[in-house]
Amino acid sequence: MYRKKNFFAGPSVMPVEVLEQLRDQIVDYQGQGLSMIEASHRGGMFEDMYDECLGLFRELLGIPEEYDVYFLGGGATLQFAMIPMNFLRPGSVADYIKSGTWSNKATDDAQKIGDVHLYFDGTDSKFTTLPDPKTVHPSKNSSYLYLCSNETIHGVEWQSFPDTGDVPLIADMSSDILSRPVPVEKFDMIYGGVQKNLGPAGATFIIMKKSLLEKRNENLPAYLNYQLHAKEKGLYNTPPVFSIWAVKLVLEWIKRNGGAAGMQKRAVEKSSIIYDTIDGSGGFYRSPVDPAYRSRMNIPFRLSSDELEKKFLSEASALDMLGLKGHRSVGGIRASVYNALPVEDVRALADFMKGFQKRNG
Ligand SMILES: *Cc1c(COP(=O)(O)O)cnc(C)c1O
Questions:
Q1: In 3D, which of 224, 221, 222, 191 has the Cα closest to residue 209?
Q2: Best residue among 71, 102, 105, 179 to mutate for probing ligand 1, ranked by most atoms within 8 Å of CB
């Protein structure tokens, strides 16, 4: 089977084995005479699969007992509003670290709900760097400190995380979840859309320390209330069944391939191939990102002119390398090298980059 080389930022590449499993099981799930996507979410067939999925997620990330884990709809974007609605207490502030497009959107929503303290604003650096985690201390009277572990568009990624003491730490990990082990105990909430590293779009994972719920605001509409979702394990209303089923298969694939540590090894290997090519190009390719915070998942880079970048993209797409155009807000090139992207595809991109430089340098 021929597969294009998929560098899309999201939705993004899936493990081919998982696509084949979905194909093979979509009509008749494990010989039960029924498809998973036809079954009631209140029935055993779905519930058994869902429990397995949540169990695997806990196992792979080492999520302690005192955390709830479940999936919701609405994308990561719905969480931008739900977090301040639930946890930004009147009379207090929430600390936000604005490090790129995604944390910026979260900040905008929070500002509509309550008082936001912009702890860090990367606007002036064009979102190419982060604060040193050792120097990050939340405000007095802070409801929580919010960060995005990997800015998918700008390509900056936290390599370690701040200690926020008693102040809850909340993180959007949409685009680097399960690409490395994470010290879950440091966080009160971790969430993200699944469509970057975990499966097809639809589901949003929520990992939340149970004690965080004790500090929540009251009187929220049902779907916006985490307390209700925690109680129902995400099954208050119909969950995104197909997406969750596919996530379960991707989690099994991650487990077979060395778990979070195995994914970290792959991520370091693949991203190094591209960064080494950029750094070894004598300035032909330029990474705008502070080397201390370079993302292992999304690698933006520039060439010397818009024209040359256009030529690069059109030659790459003729070689079936997809999704390399940088986000419209920043321009340039971006290679997303998520968990499921084969290392051979990354080598092919690096070879193309070297050849393109020879022909145009
Ligand atoms: C893609 C992305 C989002 C938005 O996810 P949706 O599921 O489309 O709402 C939020 N945060 C980060 C870091 C992302 O990469």
A1: 191
A2: 102
Which structure tokens are listed for 319?
């070689």
Query: Distance, CA 70 to ligand 1 centroid (Å)?
Result: 17
Cα of 281 vs centre of ligand 1, distance in Å, is 32
Q: How far apart are CA 338 and CA 341, in angstroms?
A: 6
Domain with 25 in it: what CATH number?
Answer: 3.40.640.10
**CATH number of the domain that 285 lies in?**
3.90.1150.10
C-beta of 172 in contact with ligand 1 (< 6 A): yes
The answer to whether residue 102 is catalytic is yes
The reply to whether 9 falls in a domain is no
What are φ and ψ of residue 64, in 5° steps? -65, 160
What digits encode the pLDDT tens for the residues 149-181?
999 999 999 999 999 999 999 999 999 999 999
Q: Burial code of 136-157, b = ≥16 C-beta within 10 A, e = fewer? A: bebeeebbbbbbbbbbbbbbbb
- One domain for residues 297 and 185: no
Q: What is the DSSP string of 107-125?
A: HHHHHHHSEEEEEEE-TTT
Residues 225 and 264 in one domain: no
> How many CA atoms lie within 13 Å of 249's alpha carbon, on the beta-carbon side?
23
Whether residue 11 has a cis bond before it, omega within 30° of 0? yes
- Cβ burial of 291 (10 Å; 0-12, 13-18, 19+) is exposed
Instruction: Please give the residue range of the domain that contains residue 316.
Output: 259-360
Q: Give pLDDT, residue 200.
A: 98
- For residue range 54-84, list pLDDT tens digits in order: 999 999 999 999 999 999 999 999 999 999 9
Q: Which numbered atom of ligand 1 lies nearest the CA of 78? A: 9
Q: State the pTM of this model.
A: 0.98
Token digits for 162?
A: 């701040």
